[in-house]
Amino acid sequence: MMSGCRWKSWTARPLALVAAVGIALTAALGVAAHLAPDPGMSPLSLTISDYAVSNNGWPMNVAILVLGVTSLAVPLALQAVRARVGAVVQGLLLVWSLGLIAAAIVPTDPIGVTELSTRGYVHRYVSVAAFVALPVATLLAIRRLAVDVRWRGAVPRLRALAVTSVLALLGLYYVAFPGGRVMMGLVERILVVLELALLAVLVGRLHRLAGRTAPVAAGESVALGESVALGESVALGEPVALGEPVAVAEAVAVARPVALARPVQRGRVVPAQARLVATRSTSSR
Length: 285
Prior knowledge:
By secondary structure, the chain is an all-alpha fold. It is 59% helix and 0% strand. It is built from nine helices and no strands.
């Protein structure tokens, strides 16, 4: 099973790079779409979708599509580094990606149309679903990631950006309905920048973790010469290969009592905690 572990650890890096390139391209194309807008267009009042359907707005539509496609790498990268975020979070990340793709494929109605068509309603609600899904997925994920030592440095930033994104969503709802769409373009762009920053922090941490050894799952054997991730425990009765070194900085955490009958193979370096438990168990006899 550890050969699969190495494969997953290796694939996490290109997946994170794909997502990072997508974020960079999205930002560049989004800026380009604002450089030569149609006459009379204002980013303060008109939405990103309005820019996407304008005569010179094709870079914006491409940006939305690129972000949606490359974001599909994020749930795969989370799985590759064994970030146990749960099926709901993975599903919400798919909603984020597929919602953006659908919004690019099904654009909104042209500027000036007062009554939305079916196409316009589809675009509106898949866009809303996407921008709601990402911060909600992050807030659900950090409840589990907070107990993973590999993620503790990123969790405060992820939480702050996710909460701020939710507040921006509430602000967008207000200006879209009770606020009469006043400054709607500005509020929407603030939301987009926040969610891009949130995604960038997430992808940055995934890229950082990609080069590390994946944690050992319960019941999984450790291959010869492989180290165990910091803070991860080895399942009770887990076999360890002959001559396996245990790095000082990556000592195996003793999370469960060690079985009295558990053999210590020749040449194995046993952590101090395990030796202490074994000594106490022998003395109690």
